[in-house]
Amino acid sequence: MWLRNGFHVTGRVSLLGATIGGNLGCDQGYFEGAGGESVLASNIEVSGDVLLRRGFRAVGNVWLNGAKIGGDLNCYQGQFENAGGDAIVAQSIAVKGAVFLCQGFYTTGRVSLLGAKIGSVLDCGQGRFENPDSDALFAEGVEVRGGVLLRHGFYAVGRVSLLGATIGGNLECGQGRFENVGGDALLVDNSEIKGSVLLRNGFFAKGVVSLGGATIGGNLDCHQGRFENADGFALFVDSVAVGGAVFLSKNFYAHGRIFLQDAQIADGLYLDSAMLAPDSPTTEVDLRFARALTLADSQVKSRSQWPQPGKLRIEGFTYEKLSPDSPTDSQYRLRWLQPQHGKGRFSPQPYTQLARVLQASGHEQEATEILIGKQEAARQYGNLSRFKWFWNWFLGKTIAHGYKPTRALFMSLAVIIFGTGLFHIGYRDGWIEASDLEAYTIATAEDSSLTYPEFFPLTYSLDVFLPVIDLHQASYWIPKASLGEPVDKSIDCLSTGIRDGGVLLAYFWLQIMLGWVLTSLWVAGFTGLVRRLE
Q1: This prediction's pTM
Q2: Alpha-carbon distance 420 to 428, whole Å?
Q3: Run of H or E residues at 380
Q4: Phi-psi map region of 439: left, alpha, beta (phi>0 left; psi -120 to 50 alpha)
Q5: Of 128, 118, 145, 175, which Cα lies nearest the Cα of 137?
Q6: At residue 408, what are phi and psi to the nearest 5 degrees?
Q7: 3-state secondary structure labels for all residues of 435-469
């Protein structure tokens, strides 16, 4: 049946329930509908193709609800006009071949493919769909055995909805432009895409791109894509299951929230060279409780490549390894983790997760620095009481929270050496005397056969410092708080500081306390007790 090559009708053309053994061809036909309807062809059966192409023009609705088409529905270079209403209504249509809304296809009004079944591809490449503030392409529940092609100059003003769709191939949107400011630009929630979702190579969206709950058999590829929704979600990928990798890389740009919470990614999450708008209050990357096999990122070179403090959410995010090209430097990684913190918001899991991965890959020292950084961040961002804040600070300065217990050992050596010098001066100048003067007097008498332990400054300092070892020095010699004037009047400044013995006695007590504290910390650090308690 041919209504083409200059065919012009004013009023409604009704083919309701018709059966056509060949093609329905309307190329270059001009249909001006009355009362909003131009072509009424619901429930028709066409053995061949339906051709509404090559200059076809319809003013008013074109109804194809429930139609059964044995070949293709081909509307390339067709023009469909019904501003503010439905331009094409093809709900529950069954097409054994492909649907072509492409190569100069143009509509003002909604194109509805609700529940359509398409045996090949849905090709909208270079198609223009305009229906501002409403649905431009409404294809919820559509079943497409091949791919859905919204690419190569595809342009939509209004929402493109593929909610609950089943797509046997790829969803390809490279070089497509989607605009629906303040709403969903591309809605693919709860859909099943057996191939890949390609939002790349010049893809542009102004509004929300949403794939919440979708199942993707291949990759989610957004490299060189641009996503803009300054007041909300730019890319919403909540609870998505991806059989391949997710690429937010190679000049990927986002102005708004990137939401991948609970995403399950079988392969890698690629974040290298991602660019984020740093000045937007909603620019945020949310990876909470997402899971990926590999985290692949590159060292950012400017603030614009990563969120501001408080705008990175990675609590519960898990991954098995870093890619070979990802940085492992601990100082860089600590800066990378810092944006997750906000005022009063601290999560230790991202630190332990990263440390575990670094340790498994042989970067032991870097892993240790990350775990130390976790405790430092807890003090800086966590809601610690004053006592816990001080204890955290003290452990950090002394034994690096148990990860560097040798610090306590070196501090102990310093105390012992300092004490050796101080006690030597004190003994030389008479500020240290025998604790048992009677026994000392008898032992030093000329005709006495008794002995009294000699004073050795190093052994004395060790005996004072070590809490559980008795070297028989501290029990026989003790500083005196007041011994009068020293024998040598020309003593140096250090001995002047202990002229009356008070400072020396105070240091004696201090070294005892330091001995208990530092040896306890040293033992706790080496046994891992501090790390288990913090």
Answers
A1: 0.81
A2: 12
A3: helix 364-381
A4: alpha
A5: 128
A6: -65, -35
A7: CCHHHHHHHCCCCCCCCCCCCCHHHHHHHHHCCCC
- How far is it, in rounded angstroms, from Cα 283 to Cα 399? 38
pLDDT tens sequence across 395-422 = 888 877 778 878 888 888 999 999 999 9
Q: Tell me, rounded to whole angstroms, the distance of Cα 193 from its chain centroid.
A: 24
HEC letters along 263-295: CEEEEEEECCCCEECCCCCCCEEECCCCEEEEE
Task: Give the separation between CA 319 and CA 240, rounded to whole angstroms.
Answer: 16
Residue 76 CA: distances (Å) to CA of 6, 33, 80, 100: 17, 21, 11, 6
Task: Give the phi and the psi of residue 350 in degrees, each rounded to 5.
Answer: -60, -30
Residues of 165-184 as b/e, b for ≥16 C-beta within 10 angstroms? bbbbbbbbbbbbbbbbeeeb
Strand partners, 40: 14, 63
Would you state the structure tokens that stand for residue 493, as one six-digit string?
A: 């400044």
- Give the residue among 411, 410, 423, 406 at the shortest CA–CA distance from 464: 423
Side chain identity at residue 81, one-letter code:
E
Dig out the tokens for 263 from the structure: 């995403």
Q: How far is CA 61 from CA 32, 109, 110, in A?
A: 10, 9, 10
Confidence of residue 279 (pLDDT cuts 50, 70, 90): low
pLDDT digits (tens, 9 = 90+) for 310-353: 677 889 999 999 999 888 999 888 888 876 766 667 888 999 99
Q: How far apart are CA 300 and CA 114, in angstroms?
A: 44
Q: Residue 344, by phi and psi: left (phi above 0), alpha (psi -120 to 50) or beta?
A: left
State how far the alpha carbon of 227 is from the alpha carbons of 81, 138, 233, 234, 236, in Å: 29, 21, 9, 5, 11
Residue 480 three-state SS: coil
